[in-house]
Design goal:
CATH superfamily of one domain: Outer membrane protein assembly factor BamC
Helix content: 25-40%
CATH architecture of one domain: 2-Layer Sandwich
Radius of gyration: 30 Å
Distance between the termini: 43 Å
Length: about 375
């Protein structure tokens, strides 16, 4: 009914006009008001009766700046566009953290986004990756002499190492930060004398503070430069980071569909959340401590890049809150740690499991989007 009323009004407007000057022209209803402020005048300050005593002095809420170049300027002037909000935040996207001898990088990005950046940094500087485990956010390099690395990196590490002729090996670990959508990047290195073939285990805590600190400083500078230049994040590599090693859809002892995800709880939470974001239903809320995603099967997933057009905003019929509540079909997706994997189930509420067909449909969509 609302849509028909809007279309009828639009048809009436179009049929009753022979031109659009009154609508879009200089004197039209939808005229450009961007330069109206040039005609504004300054009025006298507010005056209070002399016999009235105020508890607080009246100050102007929006005072006119005193450093205006010329208040009598005329003609057209195009105000420069402001810088993107991201430009002011990028400078602090990566920061150095310290706790005693330990130094690490705090990133305002998810581990899946930081993984390809850290991986690329070491490859660009001549390190050879020996082993990588995206599911645990960890990769290690091979044993290498310093002269095998890039010139600047070799020079920096040689001055920080205990022996310039020795070899070094590095382990990088990326963990979810304390706050949501943040990461912590740790670097640990070991050395062995020249000519030695003995394998040296990584310490449980940073011990070689010279090389560790140098690598952290170099990686922090590289990440900051990349952010300032607007460096993009490899979405393909990001997907590989939290992609589970194995995913299978089965049933529990009661015949309820269960999705088994081969990953730790942090990685499973990240990957299932990404799968739901790429799904077809709206995620209305989350509860990380309980491992719950709340979804509404009656509402489509929100497309943040899609904006309604002019006539959609003017004559559209957005559903009311009452209409949304009347047709709501809500469920909750629960993640539970079971042994070395995570089980994903679908519930109607905390006391009731979802119907088998609904649970299988939701879990199948999650499974398809985990790849």
């Amino acid at each position: 009914m609302k849509r028909m009323a809007g279309l009828s009004a639009l048809a009436l407007v179009i049929s009753s006009t022979s031109g659009c000057g009154w609508l879009w022209g200089e004197d039209g209803y939808f005229r450009d008001r961007g330069s109206d402020y040039l005609q504004a005048t300054q009025t006298a300050p507010m005056q209070t009766p002399q016999d009235l005593t105020l508890a607080k002095r009246l100050d102007p809420l929006l005072p006119i700046p005193r450093n205006v170049a010329d208040e009598h300027a005329t003609g057209e002037f195009e105000v420069p566009r402001p810088l993107p909000l991201q430009a002011s935040a990028e400078a602090s996207d990566f920061t150095l953290q310290k706790n005693g001898p330990a130094r690490w990088i705090l990133a305002q990005h998810t581990p899946a986004e930081v993984w390809p950046i850290a991986h690329q940094f070491f490859e660009d500087n001549g390190f050879r990756i020996a082993d990588e485990r995206p599911q645990t956010g960890e990769f290690t390099t091979t044993w290498q002499h310093f002269d095998e690395l890039s010139g600047s990196m070799a020079k920096r590490l040689t001055t920080s190492a205990s022996s310039a002729d020795g070899q070094t090996r590095v382990r990088v670990r990326i963990e979810p930060g304390v706050q949501r959508n943040t990461s912590e990047v740790y670097v640990t290195s070991v050395e062995r004398p020249a000519g030695s073939t003995d394998d040296v285990n990584f310490p449980s805590s940073p011990a070689n503070t010279g090389i560790d600190s140098a690598l952290v400083d170099e990686m922090l500078a590289s990440m900051s430069r990349s952010a300032e230049k607007g460096g993009s994040i490899s979405l393909v590599a990001a997907r590989d980071f939290d992609a589970p090693s194995r995913v299978s859809l089965s049933e529990d002892g009661s015949g309820n569909p269960v999705l088994n995800v081969g990953a730790d709880l942090d990685r499973a939470w990240s990957s299932v959340g990404r799968a739901l974001d790429h799904g077809q239903w709206k995620v209305e809320d989350i509860n990380r401590s309980l491992g719950l995603y709340y979804i509404n099967l009656a509402e489509k997933a929100e497309n943040k890049d899609e904006k309604p057009g002019f006539f959609s905003r003017m004559f559209g019929s957005a559903p009311t809150k009452e209409e949304i509540e009347a047709r709501a079909d809500r469920y909750q997706v629960r993640l539970s740690k079971v042994g070395d994997s995570v089980q994903v189930t679908v519930e109607k509420n905390i006391n009731t499991v979802a119907p088998a067909d609904v649970a299988r449909r939701v879990l199948s969509v999650i499974q398809d989007n985990l790849g």
